[in-house]
What we know:
This protein is an alpha+beta fold. The protein is 18% helix and 42% strand. The protein has one domain (6-119): Mitochondrial biogenesis AIM24 (Double-stranded beta-helix, 4-Layer Sandwich). It has helices at 23-28, 87-92, 115-125, and strands spanning 6-9, 13-19, 34-40, 44-46, 52-57, 62-66, 70-73, 78-83, 98-103, 106-111.
Amino acid sequence: MPKGSFLCAQPTVELTTLFTKKLSAGFFGGEGFILQKIQGSGMAFLEVDGDIVEKTLAPGEVIKVDTGNVFAFEPSVSYEIETIKGIKNMLFGGEGLFLTKLTGPGKIYMQTMNIAEFTGRIAQGIPSSK
């Protein structure tokens, strides 16, 4: 899960810090080299932007997601960053240059809105003085 998502948990839940294994994920993944891992039994509260979408990936099944919308995934899911191919996609795609590639098996959780999109929508509603 992205750093900064953890809010609080029962004492039986353990929070640890993980470093991404690949340099490309750290440089281009939008969250740097650091991810957070929660484990144990009990309740944990996390900050999510928008709604949560849960999907179970079959072994070898791949899904590519905008890096800001990946929220959490099971340890069995492989995580890497991939560049968007094609100059038109890079210039006109509107999603940036990188996608997160998740490979099953395991559950993944995505948020429907990332923090940049959320703040952009709020900023649109703030009146400007002219």
